[in-house]
Structures are given as structure tokens and as C-alpha cells.
């Protein structure tokens, strides 16, 4: 049995980038005659033209496969903005991938590829940053009359050499007479190899030759994530053994392996809704009200159904170190959730002493005015809040930076949710606390 050129290329790619092996093994290789290039989709496939693979030879073909793996691992197809200019997004992704490959210096990409330097841009930016820069540049060049290429079909414009008026369109060497310093016109660059683009896995735009649905080996919920994690793991091992991997891949691996960031708002919603539900459920059948069906069982006292009012309290640390904006943001969230459950919120402001104690009815939208701003002792607030059993809450949310003494024991019959404004605060929180949530002013940033 002979080994096909694509198998040889894959083998070579694995030799060159052993840590990409999980992905190079997991993807499906789909032969498309006449494609003229190599491309990928959003569903774990790499499409290839067997003639092109032979023409390139194993070295160049393996580099092209490694390039496509870059699109897959960086999720370029899925990251493409909905209204993206697909060709320019493809070029932006190529810049992010190819500058890493060029910096490593050990692979030979096909001759016509996009690098940041092709457009006079610096190395090492994120795809989103390249995209923005390239869009600006494309816009400028369009308005200055450059890029005569057919913009509705930029790839063909590039192939036919209309863009920069040279025999080597779209790439650095012959990049037009007047604008050498600005680089090539992104309107006509095309992306991929020979300006043919890298498929929907690079720009989000499905092509007619792509197969429908997901491949059985890889999809967004199935094998892709394990393959990504395995790759990240291998990159870390590679760094540990040999010290380095090209470009941003080490950072990429760190981000893939980092524990998922939890949105504090969603976490609080889940916990508070759940807790309100549990508290309500616990007293739904109450002996305080005798059942209407009591007559049917005279010897037994049946519990009656009551709709209890869950008591929600918020203890806010109003010491000097608390950021006003964050506290208001967090408090608005609690108030909204309580209102949805029909509950009033008792608000107790505490620094080293109790500064205020008020009950806000459901739907109250006042902005929280912070009193106090002295030192911090949350114990004072706990003692005050739980001093009267009749008014003590079922759910207490404590908002603090965490630099405070805590009571040694959990108050009885109460779920205590700590919402902390510092990570140190979470670490120093008492173990009896039902839930600890770290507030973050901004949602987690999207990684690679
Ligand atoms: Zn590409």
C-alpha cells in the first residue's frame, strides 16, 4: 500500500509540531479536486487539492497543514464577527498565524501568503486587532482610488493581479509603486494560499465545496475541545522539556487550560434564585396553618399550604476601601432578584458600626447611598441583623472587600452568600459561609 502525499504531509507536520498531533489526528481530510489550495471548515475538516499537495511537495504541504491547524485552534471561523468582511477577516487570521510560523523560521509556507509585514503591520497582535487595522487600511485605500480589484470578489481580483498592478499581486515583493511603505491593499489580498482563502474555518463563510454538518470525529461539543486541551497539554510539556514553542502558542495553552471564568452575575443569580426557591419550598407546607383537608383525618394535624415571604437581607461593608460603583452594581443585582421573587430587601450598612438599617420594598429603584466610610467589622452587622429572631433573614448577602473579622459561627437558619470585591477576601472568608462569589467589574475577556 502506498502512502498518499497528504498522509506524508500530515506525518511531516506532526514531526515538525508534535504538540499539534491531537488535532492533526482528529481532523478529517477531505479531497476536493480542483480546489487549488488547502482549507478548513468549522467542523473539524481539512479540504485539500491532491494536485496542489503534490505540486507543493511534503515540506510546503506540511506547513500549509500547520497553518490550517492554526485557524482551527484559534477558532477563527467562530470568532469572525457577524457582519465581518470575510476576506479581510481571513487575512487578519493569516497574519496572526503566519507571523508565528515565520518567527520560528523552520517551516516553508507556500510562496504567496499574508504576513503582518505584507501590510506594514507589526507582529504579535491578536486577529481582532489585525482585522481592525486592515479594515482601516482597506477603507483608506478604497477612498484614495487604490485597489481597483473587483471588491465583491476580492479573491479573483488578487489572482488576476488587478489589485496592486504587479505580476505578484497581493504580496510584499511587488506591492505597487506608490504605496510600498503602506504595504499591500487588503481589499485584494485574498488570504490563504494564492489568495484563495482558507474556508469557513478561517472566515466563517461556508463554501459550496464544504461538506454539510459536522464530521463524526470532531465538532464543537465533541472531540474538538478534548483535542484542544490535549494540544495545550502537549505544548506545556514541550515548553517544559525544550524551553520554547513559537510565538503566542504558550500563552494560548495557558488560556485553554485555565479554569473557566465564572460570571459573578450569573453565579449570584443561580445561587440566589436557588436559595430563594429552597427557602420557600422548606416552609411551603407549614403547620402554622392547618390544612383545609383536616376534616378527612381528624387525628392527624395536616400541614397547610402557605406562600411564605422569604426574608432577604444585604449587609454592605461601607468602609472607606469599598468602590461605590461596584457596590451599587452588585446591590442592584440583588435587589432585582429579590423583587422577581416578590421579596423586600433589608439593607444594613456597616463599617465599624451599624450605619443604617432600612427595608426597601420590591421594585424600589433608588440608588444606594453609602453612609459611614470608617473602619470595618462585619461582626457588628451580624450581631445586629440576628439580634431579633422574628426579623432575622432567611438569606443574607454580605458585600465586602473581605478585610474584616468574621463571626466564628454561622448564624442559624440562614443562607449566607458572600459577594467579595477582592480575591483575597474570598480566601479569607469563613468556611461556614454557604457560597462565596468574587465580583468582577467586567466580564472575562475573550482569549485566543
Ligand atoms: Zn489561512
Topology:
Blueprint: H1 5-16, H2 21-26, E1 28-31, E2 38-40, E3 45-48, H3 50-73, H4 76-79, H5 86-104, H6 127-143, H7 154-159, H8 200-203, H9 224-242, H10 249-257, H11 264-282, E4 285-290, E5 303-305, E6 312-317, H12 324-340, E7 345-350, E8 354-360, H13 378-385, E9 395-400, E10 415-420, H14 423-427, E11 435-438
Parallel strand pairs: 1-3, 6-7, 6-9, 9-10, 10-11
Antiparallel strand pairs: 2-3, 4-5, 7-8
The protein binds zinc ion.
The site of zinc ion (ZN) has 8 residues, from helix 3 and helix 5.
How would you describe this protein?
- This protein is an alpha/beta fold.
- It has 14 helices and eleven strands.
- The protein has two domains: 5-257, no CATH class; 264-438, Rossmann fold, CATH 3.40.50.
- Helices cover 38% and strands 12% of the residues.
- It has a six-stranded mixed beta sheet with strand order 8-7-6-9-10-11. It has a three-stranded mixed beta sheet with strand order 1-3-2. It has a two-stranded antiparallel sheet with strand order 4-5.
- β6, α12 and β7 form a beta-alpha-beta unit.
- Bound molecules: zinc ion.
- Zinc ion is lined by residues 67, 71, 93-94, 191-192, 198, 202.
